[in-house]
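Team,

Forwarding the record for the chain on the shared tracking sheet. I've put the sequence and predicted structure together so nobody has to dig through attachments.
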Amino acid sequence: MKRKPAMVQAAGQAAKGAPWVTGAMAAAIGASVVLALLPPLALESIVNGLAGGQGVPLSGALGYFALLAAAGLAEAAQNVTITIYGQKVTHWLRRAMCAKLDRLPAAYYAAQEPGAIASRLVSDVDAVDALFTNGILSMVADGCKVLSILAVIVWKSRGLGVLMLAVTPFLFWLTRRFQKRMLSAQMEHREAVARVNHCVPETIQNIRTIHTYGRQRYMEERYDRAIQQSYRAMERSNWYDALYSPIVVFTSACVVAVMMALAASGGAMRQWFGMEVGTAVAIIAYVSKVFEPLESIGMEIQNIQSAWAGIRRIDEFLAQPERPAPRQDLTLEMLRRAPAAIRFQNVDFGYGEEPVLQGLSFTVEPGKTVTLVGRTGAGKSTAFRLLLGLYEPQGGQVTVCGQPAGAIPDRVKRGLFGYVEQSPRLVDGTVADQIALFDPAIGRQQVRQAAEQVGLHAAIEALEQGYDTPAREDLFSQGQLQLLSVARAIAADPPILLLDEMTANLDGQTEAAVLAALEQAAAHRTVLSISHRLYQGLGGRQIPIGGDCR
């Protein structure tokens, strides 16, 4: 079955999730179209009464102003409901894309720039938001208004109606031409501003080099060129904007003048163009009302065109192949009851056309320590990724506690694996959050015990707010960051410990402290390491990765 486009799915989900919004939006659009037609008709009746020597009853005047107010309220209701509907569409899209992030294989992230992924979740979705709030739905409403106005003009005067039908495409062409020129100038302005914004941090970052080599003049000229380009583009945009309004007013006046001249003609022309005074006033009002929706339609078409590329990128993202679904019936208790053994059985894996692991087989028995050794690029880190289920083996099998690594749900991995990274990264939160990682199953007592076990408790307590201090890298030395990573790994008391080459950049004294913490953490756990220096400290056995692993 062919997958529906993301925009169609999002629109359907928004309509299904909040049918009252969809109904209110449809009602508001219909009311806005109808009520936009009524004030000129009421004005026609009033003017014809005055022309016939009759007074204007108070009820007629109040009714006219009531229609104007109702038309304004209907227009506001239309805009509000369209905005709410568009927000619900984008909300569903963001949820769907965030859920997709969890289901994508690690290979996708390895092949993509982080900025490109973030752009899809932010810029592309914002484009879809504009597509609904000021795009398709608004264009439908404005198109209905234009067609309704033209229909009323044809009803009131066949000749003037035909004339408006002939003139309207020209008015739309004129509007689009000016809008394209203004948009081009605005885009050039944005690009120039982006270059200006790029110059500022670049200058700050390289200020010492600039001063050392005397390149101040070059940077000033570069900055000035970008500013001048921005100013010229903005001036051109302002020129088109200033020119557009008088041209629209002049064109509208010319259309009205021609229509009135034809209406005042005698003979056969009067049969086609003749009308009462009130009708003439109403038609003048309708002609002025045509320009606003025509201008809006031009901008809405532009928004749709701009959003289309974002829609395609969102569809491509949501259509990406997903990693195999894990076994949802597997629980942490089930895995903990099984022996904490790790097995690689004739595992093959490569990135693209380049093989990395070929026929790799080894076993780590429960409670034992094994170190993978080999040259850089031999596949040691790849073996970790396979073990964590981030990649699927292309041949053979990787099992943990008797289960395929890829079948283990993400929700239980925290309690199964303790992963000590080579370069630990802080998350946004307190020092306690760095250890617990926002896991509700890890309380403050467990956080404290983990810190005490690695010898970091005293340093944390010495901070201004202790464990509640907002975490920053400057609060810790490199060795303390590594100890924090060890505490993070053991906080959930996992049966398996995975150790990356975290001692590679440490001095001897700091390395000794980290190794002491790791030795204590490794007790009674199954340990897999990829550091020769850790092997010297923790013992166990070595397994070669690379040319000798077959």
